[in-house]
């Protein structure tokens, strides 16, 4: 196949019938999932399925009894030539009453089915979504940054929460139809086993075409998911408050909307082609079924005229044949649908089974406590890229010391922090904390020791207090801790002026949400880092870029006061904030090119001195 998506076609594994059946392997897991979600509802579904499956044959049989009883009563009535009485009509009417009861029971069972299905749908949707989100929490940052993986996640979230129930509904539907069919077969085989065969042969072609087209539909869904993701992204950009400013000012609306439409047009053209092919074939092959039915119809009629069947039997066989055919084609369509659901579920399980990095250690204390942080010849290349971003980094930071990282945009400063916080592991070399490799540390303990604010910190659409609380989940709602952290992060003054103080909702997503200025948000993020009272490593990546000069001075005064006995790492492009650090590293293109104190670096008269003078000149 020359298509660029050939590997996906292969992955969908639809080569022949064995491929087709191999995809039913998720049915059992879907059933187990539904069973775990609610046993009561699953049992209820099974019971209603059974009742709704058996009763149609009973109704057909009662129909035969009615017709035959009517014929007999009519003959009797003509013979006896007497007026109609209760006694003469009751033998027929009781069958009518019985049939009414059966039909009422079928309706009850069907109601029961749909009610239980809708309850189960809600429960199951929630359960699967929670599974997806829980799994997301165990994945590494690198996995999220991998676009193929991200596709899987998007696909899982978009479709899979409804698929398990759909699969189970179809399984039960299939069972129900199978039960009906078996009971019809019991009746039909008395007429002729050949009639059964005709029934089967008539329905088979539709089934085969359904199976083929479900596979096609899935492959379409699968390979187009990058496009669907782009569509979702454009929707977000065009309709979200945080992007709408630029969309308006740059006049991006029509441009993006056109791109959105173009994607739709491509997808729609493919959908249309598939739908038309699916339905044309469905119709043509369905004709075979109709042909089979009318063939059998003629046969039954001839047999009745020949006196081999009673009128009641004729009615029954016709009904049984018609309903049997409907049940059979419904079963076969259900199998096709189950196949499709299985394909979608394969995607969900592929996501859920994504291997999790098992590399969290167990250490809660290092081999030589008090040694601080050491980088030993650390190099790092981002997954999926070739160029190393950091090369042979050596550094040592002891408790009570401060370190500043200086360097051009893209030189690797933030990456160094990502390695320290174990969002990634070094490609070469090792990072030690208190004499032990970070990989040996228990991740939770390690992260508890680090308070960090990244440049691209998160702006949660939560009350301002909780925006601080996220810094320490154990104190998420602890107002006293919020206040202490806000004081250290110099956010207290403006928070207290907000209408509801620490309980003021932030962001625009929810009612009465208040938006903050860039500098205010930065103070919130800084205070968040201070929530980690246990943390003895404090990392600030451009913490004051959006602050005014007075605010910045205040932040650093607090910082120095708070930094005693701690290890602090500061990334900044402002030399005024960097100069007080005990150790300054100048990073260029992933390598440390200079190191020392402010004074020693100025004396050295290298890159640092040059950049410092450049910036100082700017202020003159
Ligand atoms: N997730 C990622 N995947 C691949 N490459 C990345 C990723 N994040 C950053 N990079 C690349 O790594 C290099 C270093 O980025 P980093 O964010 O560490 O720079 P920085 O020194 O912090 O820059 P700045 O001063 O602009 O914040 C850049 O060339 C960037 O393109």
UniProtKB/TrEMBL annotation:
Residues 43-340 form the ABC transmembrane type-1 domain. Pfam families: ABC_tran. Residues 373-614 form the ABC transporter domain. Its main location: membrane. The chain crosses the membrane at residues 6-26, 38-62, 92-109, 167-188, 194-213, 280-300. It is found in: Cell membrane. It is a multi-pass membrane protein. GO terms for molecular function: ABC-type oligopeptide transporter activity; ATP binding; ATP hydrolysis activity. InterPro entries: AAA+_ATPase, ABC1_TM_dom, ABC1_TM_sf, ABC_transporter-like_ATP-bd, ABC_transporter-like_CS, P-loop_NTPase, Type_1_exporter. SMART domains: AAA. One of its GO terms (cellular component) is plasma membrane. Keywords: ATP-binding, Cell membrane, Membrane, Nucleotide-binding, Transmembrane, Transmembrane helix, Transport. This is ABC transporter ATP-binding protein. It comes from Pistricoccus aurantiacus.
């Amino acid at each position: 196949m020359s298509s660029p998506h050939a590997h996906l076609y292969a992955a969908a594994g639809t080569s022949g019938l064995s491929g087709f059946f191999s995809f039913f392997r998720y049915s059992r897991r879907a059933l187990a999932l539904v069973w775990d979600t609610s046993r009561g509802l699953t049992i209820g579904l099974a019971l209603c399925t059974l009742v709704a499956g058996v009763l149609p044959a009973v109704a057909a049989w009662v129909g035969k009894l009615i017709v035959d009883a009517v014929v007999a009563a009519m003959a009797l009535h003509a013979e006896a030539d007497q007026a109609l009485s209760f006694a003469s009509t009751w033998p027929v009417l009781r069958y009518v009453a019985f049939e009414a009861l059966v039909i009422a029971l079928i309706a009850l069972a069907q109601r029961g089915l749909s009610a239980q299905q809708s309850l189960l749908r809600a429960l199951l949707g929630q359960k699967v979504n929670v599974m997806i989100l829980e799994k997301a929490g165990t994945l590494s940052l690198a996995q999220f940054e991998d676009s193929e993986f991200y596709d899987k996640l998007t696909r899982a979230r978009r479709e899979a929460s409804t698929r398990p129930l759909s699969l189970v509904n179809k399984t039960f539907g299939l069972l129900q139809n199978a039960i009906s069919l078996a009971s019809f077969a019991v009746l039909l085989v008395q007429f002729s086993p050949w009639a059964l065969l005709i029934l089967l042969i008539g329905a088979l072609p539709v089934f085969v075409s359904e199976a083929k087209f479900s596979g096609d539909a899935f492959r379409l869904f699968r390979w187009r998911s990058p496009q669907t993701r782009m569509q979702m992204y454009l929707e977000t950009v065009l309709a979200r408050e945080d992007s709408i400013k630029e969309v308006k000012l740059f006049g991006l609306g029509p441009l993006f909307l056109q791109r959105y439409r173009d994607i739709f047009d491509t997808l729609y053209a493919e959908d249309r082609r598939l739908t038309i092919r699916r339905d044309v074939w469905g119709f043509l092959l369905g004709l075979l079924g109709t042909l089979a039915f009318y063939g059998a119809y003629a046969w039954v009629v001839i047999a009745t005229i020949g006196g081999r069947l009673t009128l009641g039997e004729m009615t029954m066989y016709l009904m049984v044949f018609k309903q049997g055919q409907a049940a059979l084609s419904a079963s076969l369509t259900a199998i096709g649908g189950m196949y499709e659901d299985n394909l979608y579920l394969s995607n969900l399980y592929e996501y859920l089974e994504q291997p999790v990095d098992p590399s969290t250690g167990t250490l809660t204390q290092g081999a030589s406590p008090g040694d601080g942080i050491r980088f030993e010849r650390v190099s790092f290349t981002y997954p999926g890229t070739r160029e190393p971003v950091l090369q042979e980094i050596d550094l040592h930071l002891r408790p009570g010391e401060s370190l500043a990282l200086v360097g051009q945009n893209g030189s690797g400063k933030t990456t160094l922090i990502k390695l320290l916080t174990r969002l990634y592991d070094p490609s070469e070399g090792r990072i030690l904390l208190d004499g032990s490799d970070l990989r040996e540390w228990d991740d939770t303990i390690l992260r508890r020791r680090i308070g960090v604010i990244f440049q691209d910190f998160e702006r949660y659409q939560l009350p301002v207090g909780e925006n601080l609380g996220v810094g320490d989940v154990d104190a998420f709602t602890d107002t006293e801790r919020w206040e202490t952290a806000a004081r250290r992060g110099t956010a207290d003054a403006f928070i207290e002026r907000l209408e509801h103080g620490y309980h003021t909702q932030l962001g625009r997503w929810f009612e009465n949400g208040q938006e903050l200025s860039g500098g205010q948000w930065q103070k919130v993020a800084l205070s968040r880092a201070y929530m980690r009272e246990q943390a003895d490593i404090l990392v600030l990546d451009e913490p004051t870029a959006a602050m005014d000069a007075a605010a910045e001075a205040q932040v650093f005064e607090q910082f120095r006061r708070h930094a005693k006995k701690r290890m602090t790492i500061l990334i900044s492009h402002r030399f005024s904030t960097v100069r007080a650090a005990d150790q300054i590293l100048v990073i260029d293109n992933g390598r440390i090119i200079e190191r020392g104190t402010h004074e020693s670096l100025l004396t050295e008269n290298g890159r640092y001195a040059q950049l410092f003078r450049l910036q100082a000149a700017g202020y003159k």
